[in-house]
Design a protein that fits this description.
This protein is α/β, with parallel strands linked by helices. Helix content is 29%, strand content 15%. The strands form two sheets. Strands 7-6-5-10-8-11-9 form a seven-stranded parallel sheet, with helices on both faces. A four-stranded mixed sheet has the order 1-4-2-3. Strand 5, helix 5 and strand 6 form a beta-alpha-beta unit.
């Protein structure tokens, strides 16, 4: 008698937690940005949740499978703040540095360079601020640094789906490439010789360098910066958290640019506006010339290590 061969079911595909997008806003923004999500998993008790109507409609429109899961599914995940909504995405698509440089060639460029930040909450918060401020892109190293993983995507609240992120082998080499592209590079540092943020001119093509939590900029990266900028501290605390410092610097650059544009448009009287410090003594750009390119903002040496 011939025995039937039973077909064994293949074992369930093991999830790569770095490819998980979790939280309502992060998953929804991934859909809005057109990310090719492989599947969305929603807690069974949220089937009729009105908050998820838009997300479910977008998932259906983009043919993304939606599965309603029991509590055991979510209990197996290492993330607690998933809100009963997770998605499985392809590995994050990093941009090349040259793509970032080409992308911003039509106007004033603003780059945010992260010098080996390891806390994913800080990286995610900075990516979120960079996107909200309209930055050209974010640059981070591929070693000894948090990449765009599930925690970063959650902390970025979906911003990682909208702002290009380049991963480079060497931060110092990336800074040299930025300078060759006529971008001013400034490093955040609270030491002597740093220009106070109140006097820094951040209106031109700019790269803001954020140092590692607790240690600040590495010596090589500090040397490659065109100049250093410090954030004034008026209390007893000597430094800010890395992501907070980045937000201060990025939005000061945005403020100066918008004010400068209003002056150029004639909607502000230049004589009545307090302009940032004179930049006659600024170093020449790589390749010669000074143009109207200005400076880059920087973070204090001890950027803070609490997320």
């Amino acid at each position: 008698m011939e025995r039937r061969r039973l077909k064994r079911r293949p074992p369930p595909r093991r999830l790569d937690f770095d490819d998980i997008v979790y939280g309502i806003h992060a998953v929804d923004e991934a859909l809005v940005a057109g990310e090719r999500l492989r599947s969305i998993h929603i807690s069974d008790d949220r089937k009729k949740d009105a908050v998820l109507r838009g997300l479910l409609a977008r998932a259906k429109e983009r043919n993304v499978p939606v599965r309603f899961e029991q509590r055991g599914f979510f209990a197996s995940l290492p993330f607690k703040a998933h809100q009963g909504v997770v998605a499985v995405a392809p590995p994050f698509a990093y941009a090349g540095l040259h793509e970032l440089l080409d992308r911003g060639s039509g106007g004033r460029r603003l780059f945010v360079v992260l010098d080996h930040l390891t806390d994913p909450h800080n990286v995610g918060a900075i990516v979120r601020t960079a996107e909200a401020a309209g930055a050209t892109g974010v640059v981070l190293p591929d070693r000894r640094s948090a990449g765009i993983n599930a925690t970063v995507r959650k902390a970025a609240a979906g911003a990682a789906a909208h702002v290009p992120v380049a991963r480079v082998a060497n931060v110092a080499d990336a800074i040299r490439a930025l300078k060759k592209a006529r971008v001013w590079v400034a490093g955040g540092d609270a030491g002597q010789g740093a220009t106070s943020l109140e006097k820094a001119d951040l209106r031109g093509d700019l790269a803001i360098v954020i140092g590692e939590e607790g240690r600040g900029l590495s010596p090589l990266v500090r040397r490659e910066c065109d100049f250093l900028v410090s954030i004034p501290m008026y209390g007893r605390i000597a430094s800010l958290n890395a992501s907070v410092a980045a937000g201060v610097l990025i939005y000061e650059a945005v403020r100066q640019r918008r004010l400068d544009q209003r002056i150029l448009d004639g909607s502000e009287d230049a004589e009545l506006v307090d302009q940032p410090g004179d930049f006659e003594d600024a170093p020449e750009l790589p390749g010669g010339g000074h143009d109207d390119a200005d400076a880059v903002a920087v973070v204090p040496s001890s950027a803070g290590d609490d997320a």
